[in-house]
Amino acid sequence: MAITTALCNSFKQELLNGTHNLPSNTIKLALIKVGHSGTYNKSSTNYSNITDASDEATNTSGSAYPTGGVTLDSVAVSLSGDTAIVDIADEVITSASISAVGCMIYNSSQSNKAIATIDFSGTQTATSGNFTITFPAADASNAIIRIA
Fold this sequence. Notes:
The protein is mainly beta. About 10% of the residues lie in helices and about 45% in strands. Strands 1-7-6-2-3 form a five-stranded antiparallel beta sheet. Strands 4-5-8 form a three-stranded antiparallel beta sheet, with no helix packed on it.
């Protein structure tokens, strides 16, 4: 199956309905395993899309990556020119033995509603080391979440 990097359509609609408060809500990142069976893209609506398909990556040693993913340490909303952006700090999962091909960012404060899906463009692996998710620079052209 496939993963497409996309802002989820349900998230766009929920923004207009006032569902999400990104700086104040708990925003999490769940890793999608190699050989997943689901399709993750702009049509994804909830973290349960991953769990229902048993597609979440698991840490093969230790507990560095818990079921449900990791809480993103820093999610900040700002304005770059006329574009609203969300700056997400890079996330490091320490002491990890894990492989993943993508992830879903979701809002655990709002019934696990999906925000975005990200394709890693190949398998990313850590063996008893750091698994790092590097987010693009937060500017009007690169931020993962931007509204122009």
